[in-house]
Amino acid sequence: MSSTPAPGPTDVATPAISSTDVPAEPHRHAHVEVSRLPMWVAVALTVVSGALTAVQSRINGELARRLDDFAVAAVISFGSGLLILLVVVAAWPAGRRGVGRVREALADRRLAWWMLLGGLAGAWFVATQGIAAAVLGVALFTVAIVAGQTLGGVVVDVIGIGPGGRRPLTLPRAAAAILALAAVGWAVSAQVETAVPVLLLLLPFSAGFAVSWQQAMNGRVRVAASSALAATLVNFAVGTTALVVVLAVHATSVGWPDSMPTEPWLYAGGAVGCVFIAMQAGLVRRVGVLVLGVVAGQLSAALALDLLLPTSDHAVGIATVGGTVLALAAVALSGIRRRARHASPEAVRPVR
């Protein structure tokens, strides 16, 4: 944390966005296109990113089930994503410049080292996919994720650790958050009466809460790097490192899988993660960390997957369908324009 004076009741001890801080010119232009996106386009893109999250949960959950090993599945997902990003960054000069800007931001203390650790939350998220998604079913897994994500988004936005600074909890945002939680409760109500291990829901719930912090940290790195690609690379490098350590410990006690599945789609989780994490890193400033569009995308895609390509014994009931529709209503409510002014251009105060 910083060594600045202790925060007051409305302050936080983390670096904040200030309306008087103006970024250097080379760092400003890269954010103009995202900032000028119409809000409805930004929200639509967050829905797509949320849908991809549900798709990744299905892929990684099924891979872990086939391997009977969540740690190997998680390393394959994160590690393959890291390899893809390393190739892209090596081939794209703008990506290499973004990585260089991250180093510069760390050196001049515009970026704190702990802001690079968003990948730890991503690693936990992918691990819970392998542990719980195949058991719970992707729809039930996803509603637990989005419950934690919705609450975490409120906390992160109000505290102001995301790249857009503090976002007051206005009436439409508060109502939308409540409506989203009601949607989650409705969607899960019918399933908890079955043989589903309810305590297992705590894993994706905690991962969802952590994802809100991950989005904020990745957004801060993107600001410093002027590159969503560089922020995504940092995310995957940190997450892969953490998962390799977990795998090394896990393998000493349970050993390694006897064989690997041959279906190529089971190894696509990393590529899917590259896409949606880059999208969220780029969009977080425009729409805030409380991204109810992500929630709607996750729920809708999870529902479609369980209806069209079921892999668990848990039937999709009217409660799950109704909860998804209610979540979509929450997205519409969250899109109401705020009267408060938009956040100032991204500039992070030096961390002292």
TrEMBL record:
GO CC list: plasma membrane
InterPro entries linked: YdcZ
Transmembrane segments: 37-59, 71-92, 113-132, 138-159, 171-188, 194-213, 225-252, 264-283, 290-309, 315-336
Name this protein carries in UniProt: Transporter family-2 protein
PANTHER family: INNER MEMBRANE PROTEIN YDCZ
Species of provenance: Agromyces flavus
Keyword list, A-Z: Membrane, Transmembrane, Transmembrane helix
Positions of region (Disordered): 1-25
Annotated Pfam families: DMT_YdcZ
